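Give me the fold.
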Amino acid sequence: MTYLGAHLSSSGGFYKMGKAALAMDANTFQCFVRNPRGARAKAVKPDDLEKLRVLLEENAFGPIVAHAPYIMNPCSKDEGIRELAGRMMAEDLALMEYLPGNYYNFHPGSHVGQGLETGCRQIADMLDQVVSPALKTTVLLETMAGKGSEIGGKFEDLRAIIDLASCGDRLGVCLDTCHVSDGGYDIAGNLEGVLEEFDKAIGLSRLKAIHINDSMNPLGAHKDRHAKIGEGTLGTDAIVRVITHPSLKHLPFLLETPDDDAGHAAEIAMLRQRIGERSQ
């Protein structure tokens, strides 16, 4: 089974998101559990979350992904910002325990001149504070485009964080097709080579989810500008090769393309058709 979905708005509640996913023929989805550009958390409504849990089970959904807010920076120079990142992640993970067995994804952050080694250590320290052995949610580090002092533009960055964290055995990775291309990995022209690099640096067993986005930029641009599938420099064929790759096809694939629900539904329909054609 291919798990395809999109990033959905959680403004109407979690159960409503599940229904919206079904309406677009999705069987996974991603969402924010708080304001993506602020610190305000959404009120926890256990009944709403339980209704979603039942809907996901009844409709054979793959794992869903909660996304951390963009303002989270666990390797900031500012101690207060680092502490805020830890508090936000701890609160979000407590909410996700109502939906056990799913994923929480975050951008590792920017070391803002402190250096890669210091930044990785600060991220690992935060993770060790919030990722407990009893946690039923897997925390995912996202591959990034490598803008400025952004950590995660190289697979080795994420490996360093995993190795530094005492909870490293409970961490995974979310690969973003736009980010890795912008970061210099030729996922369109040499998918096998990129996966070999990932396996050598991190291990494919740690890859738990994939953001499927086309890119507005050429390979190695380090800019991070998502495009709709087929309207960027990667192209539809490259995205379909990612989704159908034997080592990846069991994962949840999530659109973060610049589109609304209707547009995402059209992209999902197109991708399902292309996947079917490729399997014939």
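The two ends are 15 Å apart (CA to CA).
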